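User: Hi! I'm working on a homework problem where we have to compare a predicted structure to a textbook description. Could you give me the structure for the chain below?
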Amino acid sequence: MAKMIWKAAQRGADLTHRMLAFARRQTLQPKPVDVNRMLANMESILRRTLSADIELEVIQSRENCTALVDLTQLESAVLNLCVNSRDAMPGGGKLIIETGIGHPGSRTA
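Assistant: Happy to help. Predicted structure tokens:
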């Protein structure tokens, strides 16, 4: 239980840091990020963000899903999309997050 509390506190501190960085408009620091791993690390906070009547399904690509991004900004964007999705489904529903590699000329990005 203490370990869960510690992790939640760390996530809260990270979120606060991100919000402060966004408010100060700090420069982005793009680095290679494993998007599948990032989502796996965020899944518990995303589930807690959604209401109980919204099912979350995370579908991870079998391909290496590495993107050159600012990790803080991508995590914030995913969290904001989940909050917006929750607000758009007041009666419940299903939110699907899927990773994949967009190929030139494809419709997937």
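For your comparison, note the following. The mean pLDDT is 84. The chain is about 50% helix and 20% strand. Good luck with the assignment!
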